[in-house]
Amino acid sequence: RGAIGVRLRFILSETGKGLARNKAMAVAVVIVTYVSLLFVGIAALAQLQVDMLKDDWYDKIEVSIYMCAHDDRAATCDGKEATEEQIAAVRERLLSSDMAPYVEEVYEETKEEAYQTFQEMYGDSALGDWTTADMLQF
């Protein structure tokens, strides 16, 4: 026990002498350590915040599917309106058990409902005055 005490006392005294001789270096080491740990803490808190926001936003994702309208110029539409069979096939796929983990709710909107919503949003503008129901996709 005596030898360990002597060694410990020697180590502590030499540490004290070194710190006394190099005060600026000791302060610099403390400041660098503080700043480094501060950055690590900020990064950890930022990661936690991103994870929380990700979980929150993933629950709020909405996807809109627009079907072809009459005289639609999209290459896949070929100027033809979507048929009831095509609409039913999309509805069936969205409501299938394969999509159940990903689809919480399916909301369908007819041309007339889409036009009504459009008019509520843009009715007082030139765009609202110019647009007719058959121009809208649904």
- Note the total helix count: 5
Low-confidence stretches: none
Q: How many β-strands, per DSSP?
A: 0
- Tally the structural domains: 2
> Please, what is the average pLDDT?
84
The secondary-structure class comes to mainly alpha
Largest sheet features? none
What portion of residues is helical?
55-70%
Order of helices and strands: HHHHH
Gap from first CA to last CA: 87 Å
Strand share of the residues?
A: under 5%
Determine Rg (CA atoms, Å): 34 Å
Shape: elongated
Structural commentary:
The chain is an all-alpha fold. The protein has 2 domains: 2-58, no CATH class; 62-138, no CATH class. Helices cover 61% and strands 0% of the residues. The chain is built from 5 helices and no strands. The mean pLDDT is 84.
How are the SSEs placed, and which strands pair?
Layout (H helix, E strand, L loop, with lengths): L1 H20 L1 H36 L25 H11 L16 H12 L3 H5 L8
Name the features:
61% helix, 138 residues, mainly alpha
Give a quick rundown of the structure.
With 138 residues, the protein is an all-alpha fold. It contains five helices and no strands.
